[in-house]
Amino acid sequence: MTSELQQQQPIVLAIAGFDPSAGAGIIADIRTIQQLRCAAVAAITSITYQNERTYAGAIHQTAESVRAQVSGIVAENRIVAVKIGMLPTAEVVREVAQLIREFNLPLSVVDPVMQSTSGGKLMDDDAFAVFVTELLPGVRVITPNIPEAEKLAGLNIRDEDSMRQAAARIRELGARAVLIKGGHVKQEAGARRQEPAEVNRKAIDLLDDDGEVTAFQGNWIDAPNTRGTGCMLSSAIACGLARGDELKRAVAAAKEFVTETIKNSKFRIHN
Ligand code: PLP
């Protein structure tokens, strides 16, 4: 039976991977959705083994498992927004795309998760092609970071101009809107292996919604741990959309939420 809370609050479905250390993945999604006073339901695509520093592997779910989880949820809940995170295999991507069509679910926010912060591969190579052709068309907003946007658009991003070009190309693949995250946080010295791109240092996030482009410029924040910020941001956008906000407003509010959460976390982002 649907809980009383779920009847009062818009219901957001998170389809994502499980990170047992709770920094990222479905725990971060659920935490965010509840903090933003929406009701969370969730389906797990993969059980990963990781902590703050190390990614030790995963057991991915099958199409059957994902289908069974989602069909149980939609049978008794009115889903207002869907946030999609880790999709590890071509089989799981295909099944999620099929479930979205079959149950007429809103394809609200997709975070194209490809790699964990500790370097673990979260999406197979052959899953990427299926992701682009079967899931991307119809997405309300996709939220790649710079490496993900470069892969989707097939070009290098070094400045705001190339960020705009990449966003336009990704929209051509079928997403209605693209939010490219140029970096809303600065990692501790030594945490980055490469010098960040110019847009990264300036912490610009660029939203292209049906051709209307908005650049959000934020201040860098020194944070000991930035894992899970992509999960939080995409879940927070889904909550804004679930409440009926227009996309630009949902993105602005979600960025604010992530920034405040980082500022308030002394040691770990989820404390
Ligand atoms: N989903 C899972 C299961 C993960 O393990 C990770 C990163 O480790 C992510 C998503 C992406 O996390 P972030 O929010 O740091 O991009």
Task: Please outline the helices and strands.
Layout: H1 4-8, E1 11-18, H2 25-35, E2 39-50, E3 55-60, H3 63-76, E4 79-84, H4 90-102, E5 109-110, H5 125-135, E6 141-142, H6 146-153, H7 160-172, E7 177-181, E8 186-187, H8 198-201, E9 204-209, E10 212-217, E11 222-223, H9 229-242, H10 247-264
Parallel strand pairs: 1-2, 1-4, 4-5, 5-6, 6-7, 8-11
Antiparallel strand pairs: 2-3, 7-9, 9-10
Helix pairs in contact: 2-9, 3-4, 4-5, 6-7, 9-10
Bound molecules: pyridoxal-5'-phosphate.
Textual characterization of the structure:
A 9-stranded mixed beta sheet has the order 3-2-1-4-5-6-7-9-10, sandwiched between helices. A two-stranded parallel ribbon has the order 8-11. It has one domain (4-270): Ribokinase (UDP-N-acetylmuramoyl-L-alanine:D-glutamate ligase, 3-Layer(aba) Sandwich). Helix content is 41%, strand content 21%. The chain has 271 residues and is an alpha/beta fold. Helix 4 (90-102) packs parallel to helix 5 (125-135). The chain is globular. Residues 184-195 have low confidence and may be disordered. Bound molecules: pyridoxal-5'-phosphate. The site of pyridoxal-5'-phosphate has 18 residues, from strand 1, strand 2 and helix 9.
